[in-house]
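Q: What structure does this chain adopt?
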Amino acid sequence: MLATPRASAEPGHEWRRWIAENLLLGSAPASLLRILTGAGIAEREAVAELELALRSPYLKGAARLKNRLARRDWVLDIQRTLNGLRAPHIERRHRLPAEAFLADYYSTNQPVIITGMMDGWMAGRRCANGRSIISPATTPSAKSKCSTAATPTKTMN
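A:
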């Protein structure tokens, strides 16, 4: 049960929020009534507030959302359990086609390590001087970084 708002002669917004939260958390209206009256709220007013909250379409909507979230958590727990039953092996596939990835891995929520997909990218190449070609879109600047002037020359003794 949540902490109670400060005592007041009549229930205000803080008490109404407290009533709604505790009802959503599953507290019995009778126990809430005892707390409300113990805080100095007249029993008649406390009963009226509880009945108003129990009939509220907002509270009913929040309860539906709470049930949906509980169902989602249940499904995620089952998925987590099923994933734990699987061997911790992650396949490696070289140049996996998009259709095979979608059918075999993505749609079944299976991990896969895809290799070789960036082999042809200029950004992954290195110059003779060991520097990376950073900008594949700008070939002239890439060539300037790999110029022969920057490449150390071997001298023969």
